[in-house]
Design a protein that fits this description.
The chain has 260 residues and is α/β, with parallel strands linked by helices. It contains 7 helices and 18 strands. An 8-stranded mixed β-sheet has the order 7-6-8-9-3-14-15-18, with helices on both faces. The chain has a 4-stranded mixed β-sheet with strand order 12-13-16-17, covered by helices on one side. A hairpin with a 7-residue loop joins β4 and β5. The two termini are 27 Å apart.
Length: 260
Amino acid sequence: MRPAIKDGRVDRLHDMTAAEPTILATSGGLVPSRRLRWEVGPLTDYAVELAGVSGRAPRVCFLATAMGDNSEQVKGFYDAALHRGFAPSHLALFPMPNVEDPRELLLSQDVIWVFGGSVAGLLAMWRMHGIDLAMREAWQAGVVLTGVSAGSICWHAGGPTDSFGPRLRAVTDGLALVPFSNGVHYDSEEQRRPVFHALIGDGTLGAGYATEDGTGLLYRGSRFVEAVTEKAGKTAYYVSRSADGTVTEQPLDTRLLRAP
């Protein structure tokens, strides 16, 4: 069923996915494959589960804006999605949008999956084309938002990024669907942890959540709900600054997801 449009907004009451606005922000979701570029991992399966789809293939839309809509990444997504039994689509913005109405495409999905790359470039392109507003509307309508790296930071207020060069700097103009900062690849890239601490310590970023590779953060509305992982032994953290400027890192209970 396609959503009806009322007063410029989409009514998904009869085609609801998640019961409330839902984000699964990750440093994972894709796993190595013997035959494909990569395959869908348990984090992506969990995002689809959160959408509550039954009786049909889940509609999953892929955005590689942060990689300049790299065609190999788009093909890799289609291969992985079809292999898993999803109904795939994608939204490209380079050199022009690949669909007549990007908003309608996004609002017709069960899950929106955003790939990594330049989060600064992603945010600029989304705002240029009104995708930032469409994402907020889709989120409010129950479409599950997920993604990796840049596709995690974008939902937050900001986080450390290599969008500007090899030395990590802060991006502070994320969509802020959730009111926290976000650190990704926390255990695999040596700059990530100390830079996240420094940016929170000096007030450039507010308190936030960080994910080791293979780990994700579930938010319902603007509330953090749980940390989950597709790799045993991996975890997530809450990082905050006290009144005296001390930065504290708190490991979170992290639930291991099982492969289907």
